[in-house]
Amino acid sequence: MMLLLPSIYMQAVSSNQTKVNQKAVVRVGDARFTVITPRVIRMEWDSTKLFNDQASFLAVNRNLQVPQFTQGVKGGWLTIKTSEMELNYKVGSGRFTPKNIRVKFLKDNKSVTWKFGDVQKGNLKGTYRTLDGYNGGIHEHDNKPMPIEDGLLSTDGWTFIDDSKNYLFDNSDWPWVAERKNKAGQDFYFMAYGHNYKSALKDFTTFSGKVPLPPRYAFGYWWSRYWSYSDNELRNLISNFNTYNIPLDVLVVDMDWHYTEAGKGGWTGYTWNRRLFPDPDGFLKYLKQNKLQITLNLHPADGIANYEENFPAMAKWMGVNPDSTRLIPYEGSNKQFMSGWFNTILRSMEKKGIDFWWLDWQQKLNDGKFKDLSNTWWINYVVFSDMERNRETRPLLYHRWGGLGNHRYQIGFSGDSYISWTSLDFQPYFNSTASNVLYGYWSHDIGGHMGANNIDPELYVRWLQFGALSPVLRTHSTKNSNLNKEPWAFSQKYLEVIRNTILERYQMAPYVYTMARKTYDEALSLCRPMYYDYPENKEAYENKNEYMFGDNLLVCPITSPMKNDKSTVKVWLPEGNDWYEWHTGTLLKGGQSIERTFNLDEYPVYVKASSILPLYDKVKNLQNNNEPVTVTVFPGKQGSFEMYEDNGNDKDYATHYAKTLLSTEKAGHVLTVKIAARQGSYPDMPSNRNFKVKVLASAVPESVLVNGVQTDFTYDGNDLSFTINVPETDCSKEKVLKITYPTDALEVTDGLLAQMRHVRATVLQLKQKQAGIVLNEELGTMESAGGCITYYPNQFKQRIEAFRANYANLPIVLQAQKLNKETIDWFINAVK
Question: Using 50, 70 and 90 to split pLDDT, how confident is the model at 362?
């Protein structure tokens, strides 16, 4: 059981949690075994018998619930049995060796025996500190592949973790790095899971701590650019976001917020550049008035120089003479220095509006005092835990990966990625494997950072579409005037797709946030490899770029340029259910690999059939928690989803939250949708919420009843969906919708949605090619079919059947329009 005090973020690195529950412990001489879960056991050998109960950087929880197990000694061998595995150790045989310890467990219903020293053959990899210098997975300078670290999962079905030489946390009020007393001892963890990868990840969090839930705003859009912005420029930027009605949650201000020239600043800096920001407090106040969260870039490695405004206060804190000292060096493991860093410099800035810090890379790899202490790992812990100790809001930072245990201090900044299709093609895989070490919140430079002198609009759009289906959507680029990613800098063709992609990210926010809670509860990252759900399918391992985005969405990213204005991907759709291709309106059978084509404004997102998902319609940002929710019903027979909500930025979410069960069932010609009474509570929870129910890929219904009362609906012929405004807004009351269809209702899950959209877009292009054209009856009514159905829903069947007939005979329709062969070929290619 996790303690809530002193902190769910520090993951109970406290004396209370390091009191090992002796009921889980088996001691025989100089060996100690702790049963953590039925699938995980800790194995210690210590000749001094002074076994370690302190939290380590890896294992922060010691006082755990005790699983059922048996123990006994027979023939000089200790046997510990759980429901999942059996450990054998030869009593009195000393250090663990291949001859004296083994573990048996089942994989694929066959007994497997692990012996100490066995080497994994099928590790599924973890993550790597940074993408810096890598074009995709290959380093630009030495042409070597990225040495991605091993992860927690392997096709072998077991994982062995050596924690023997890892640093410990002391038991002070602010737990700090400490050396082990006996460095010659052995401290191991063995995990047996077969192919139940999900259980392994959750088991790991049992002793290594949960993945904290970021604030809800972190799942909105982050604007970032390495540019010497001024106050005026940023105000103009935000004004344009408002003008173009593009939502925004986080403003990232790179290092030029402070002085950077010699004698006043450098990579490291803490004094606002008054030439660019004459009134920093006024600037921050303006951002808060626009409901933005602010993060500033920090490169702390150069210490605090005597030209910084806060240098005298820091010098006094450190007990040095400010008049005779030019620099106070950075010392990450020095608690006095780090405390002063916060108390004399950062804390005052946080109180004025800085919500979190971007810890950019500059430090040496390891600390000066503790030679194996990773500066990256340690500063992540220090900054994250300090924010938790001194704020009412949730801590957050973004910095590079430091190693196992860093999952407790999100979010990750993956560094300066190259602008290339190769980089884009690598990032889906990079995201997925990171979930194997629970580092599921990577923030990439969407669109790439460097390595090109201009932006390829198509590459940027595809990267942004992937970014919208990633943990964090943050665009960024280096200081190059040609790398401007402001949406309005693109032509209308690309601006529309860019804007809609950002809007779709916000549309999915309730779903994404619910899945983020699942990361906290069950250790399942937003972007998950396919083998979590389909471990016995070879395709789950072979299709490395394909991933699940939460429980319900499968994504197969487009990572190569279009040919003839079409992108083609081969997607594997697992068996077990059908899959709804969201952007084209096509219901596809599971259990097949299939080639699909997409226009620029379409993306390979597949929703499990029968899904019912909570979505937003239009929101400006994610600051509120009372936004209207559109309960969206996808084609299928029966499904359910539990929508999660909480305060959005408080620290009490572990126990203070609410859930609402959404369910759908179709029997015959009647579709039933239920919005259950909300369960749970949290601070500032609204008692009422406006709900809509939207049914996708649907014929026009005959009638709609809400709690037994006839209710109107609105049908959108261009979207082939209808929407019901639910009159009841009290969240404590159940809402039941009964939707009845005609007995001869048409099925429209065959890609009709994309066909109609393509015809409308292509007819518009045809008019631009031939401005004086007069559309004939067939082509004209094809273009207007969706709009006509919106006006006259009772004509649904007639209009759909006419469209399908004309679409099937499109060459004849276009010939009757008296188009030449070249134009006909172009038109047909465009709409297919």
Answer: confident
> How far from 732 is each of 661, 685, 724, 726, CA to CA, in Å?
12, 12, 20, 14
* Stretch 742-755: mean pLDDT: 97
pLDDT band at 200 (very low <50, low <70, confident <90, very high): very high
Give the other-Cβ count within 10 Å of 164's Cβ. Answer: 18
Report whether 334 contacts 307 (CB < 8 A): no
- What is the C-alpha to C-alpha distance for residues 390 and 647, in angstroms, rounded to an integer? 19
Residue of 173, 191, 204, 266 whose CA lies nearest to 60: 204
Chain-wide mean pLDDT for the chain?
95
Q: Residues near 699 by Cβ (< 8 Å), separated by ≥ 6?
A: 741, 742, 745, 746, 747, 748, 796, 797
The rounded distance, in Å, linking the Cα atoms of 756 and 760 is: 6
Residue 196's pLDDT is what?
Answer: 96
DSSP states of 599-631 as a string?
-TT---EEEETT-EEEE-S--S-S--S---EEE
Residue 436 has pLDDT above 80, yes or no: yes
pLDDT score of 654 more than 60: yes
Whether 679 and 732 have beta carbons less than 8 Å apart is answered as: no
Q: What letter would DSSP give residue 213? A: P
Contacts of 532 (CB under 8 A, 6+ apart): 197, 198, 524, 548
Query: Are 568 and 595 a contacting pair, CB within 8 Å?
Result: yes
15 pLDDT band, cuts 50/70/90, is very low
Compute the radius of gyration of the chain from its Cα atoms. Answer: 29
The CA distance from 823 to 831, in Å, is: 12
- How many CA atoms lie within 13 Å of 126's alpha carbon, on the beta-carbon side? 20
**Cα separations (Å) of 267 from 264, 356, 359, 400, 435?**
11, 19, 12, 17, 32
Q: How far apart are CA 696 and CA 671, in angstroms?
A: 12
pLDDT the model gives residue 375: 95
Please calculate the CA angle 515-521-522 and round it to the nearest 5 degrees.
Answer: 85
Tell me the percentage of the chain whose pLDDT exceeds 70.
98
Q: Parallel, antiparallel, or unpaired: how do β-strands 442-443 and 412-413 relate?
A: parallel
Q: To 10 degrees, the CA torsion angle through 754, 759, 761, 762?
A: 130
Residue 16 has pLDDT above 50, yes or no: no
Joined tokens for residue 84: 């999942």
